[in-house]
Specification:
This protein has 283 residues and is α+β, with helices and mostly antiparallel strands. Helices cover 25% and strands 21% of the residues. It is built from 7 helices and 11 strands. The strands form 3 sheets. A 5-stranded mixed β-sheet has the order 2-9-5-4-3. It has a 4-stranded antiparallel β-sheet with strand order 1-7-8-6. A two-stranded antiparallel ribbon has the order 10-11. Helix 1 packs parallel to helix 7, helix 4 packs across helix 7 and helix 6 packs across helix 7. Its cofactor is Zn(2+).
C-alpha cells in the first residue's frame, strides 16, 4: 500500500503542476529514518531548477514528473509515502519539497511516515534503462492484455494470488487489489497458475481492469491506519466498497451466505469467500 489506484490518484492529483517551473527543491530536516534521495539535494537542485514540468506519468506504483529535456523525477511511495499539494499530515515525516513558479500550485510535498519510499532523478536514458530495458518492471496492470497476462504466469506453480504480486510479471497490483480481483473473478487465491483455464484467465484479467478502474474512481483505499491520502490530504473512498479485503468473519457481500476467510500467503494476508471462490470451480 499504496497500490496502482492510489498512485494513479496521486498522479492525477498533481496534474495542475504541468507547465509550472521548478524554482527550488529542498530536503527538510528530519530525524526519522532517511528515504533514498538520489542524487544528493545540491545536485538535485542544480539539475532541476529553472526546468519546466511537461507531463505527469506513472510507472506501476511510482509517480513520474517529466521535465523539459527529458529528465524525470520518480517518486516511489512504497508503504507509507504520499505525494501532496496540501500541507502534509505532520512535519516530522516530511522528506522532500519542490517549490514552483509560473504555476497556481506553490509546492509539491513528499511525505513518508516509515521512510521506505524514494525520490530519484533520472536522465531520459537512465529512466528507460531502469524501467523499460532492465526487465524489473512488467507491463502495467491497466495496459496488459489477457493473453500476455496468461503467458507470463500460466507456467508458474505459484498460487495465483502470490503470482499477481510479482511486479516483473504485471506491474501495479498489490496485496489488497489481488484479493479483491480474484474474488470478483471467482478464483480461489491458492489455485496454482498452471492449473488455471483460459476462461478463468480471461475472468481474472477482466476483474483486474474493472476493480482497478473502480478503485481509481473512488480515489483509492484509505485503510484503518489512515496513512493513505490523496494529493489534497483527503481520504480515498474505495475502502467502503471492499468485497473481501479486511472483512474476516463478516458475511461475503457478494453471496451473503458465507463469512470471509483470512489466510496467509507469502507472509501476507489473503481474504476470500469459499462459496464464491470454491477451489473446485475456480479453474
Amino acid at each position: 500500500m499504496p497500490e496502482l489506484p492510489e498512485v494513479e490518484t496521486m498522479r492525477r492529483g498533481i496534474l495542475s503542476i504541468v507547465g509550472g517551473k521548478v524554482a527550488d527543491v529542498a530536503k527538510p530536516p528530519c530525524a526519522r529514518r532517511p528515504i533514498l534521495l538520489s542524487p544528493g539535494i545540491a545536485a538535485f537542485r542544480r539539475r532541476t531548477a529553472g526546468r519546466t514540468i511537461t507531463a505527469i506519468d506513472r510507472v506501476g506504483k511510482r509517480v513520474v514528473i517529466v521535465l523539459e529535456g527529458g529528465d524525470r523525477i520518480v517518486l516511489e511511495p512504497r508503504m507509507t509515502g504520499l505525494v501532496l499539494l496540501a500541507d502534509p499530515p505532520t512535519r516530522d515525516h516530511l522528506r522532500w519539497v519542490m517549490t514552483l513558479e509560473d504555476c497556481a500550485v506553490e509546492k509539491v510535498w513528499f511525505w513518508d511516515r516509515r521512510g521506505l519510499g524514494s525520490v530519484r532523478l533520472f536522465t531520459e536514458r537512465e529512466f528507460i534503462a531502469e524501467f523499460t530495458e532492465s526487465g524489473k518492471i512488467g507491463p502495467d496492470a491497466l495496459a496488459i492484455s489477457w493473453q500476455e497476462l496468461r503467458s507470463r504466469l500460466e507456467k508458474s506453480r505459484r498460487a495465483v494470488k502470490v503470482a499477481l504480486l510479482d511486479q516483473k510479471a504485471v506491474c501495479g497490483v498489490g496485496n489488497l487489489y489481488a484479493a479483491e480481483l480474484l474474488h470478483v473473478a471467482g478464483v480461489h487465491p491458492e489455485t496454482p497458475c498452471d492449473a488455471i483455464s483460459t476462461a478463468a484467465w480471461k475472468k481474472i484479467h477482466t476483474a483486474m481492469i474493472d476493480v482497478l478502474q473502480e478503485a481509481i474512481r473512488y480515489e483509492g483505499s484509505t485503510l484503518g491506519d489512515g496513512t493513505y491520502r490523496n494529493a489534497l490530504n483527503k481520504d480515498g473512498g474505495y475502502q467502503n466498497c471492499h468485497r473481501v479485503y479486511g472483512r474476516e468473519g463478516e458475511l461475503c457481500r457478494t453471496c451473503g451466505k458465507k463469512e470471509v476467510i483470512r489466510i496467509v500467503q507469502a507472509q501476507r494476508a489473503t481474504f476470500y469467500c469459499e462459496r464464491c471462490q470454491n477451489r473446485n470451480r475456480s479453474h
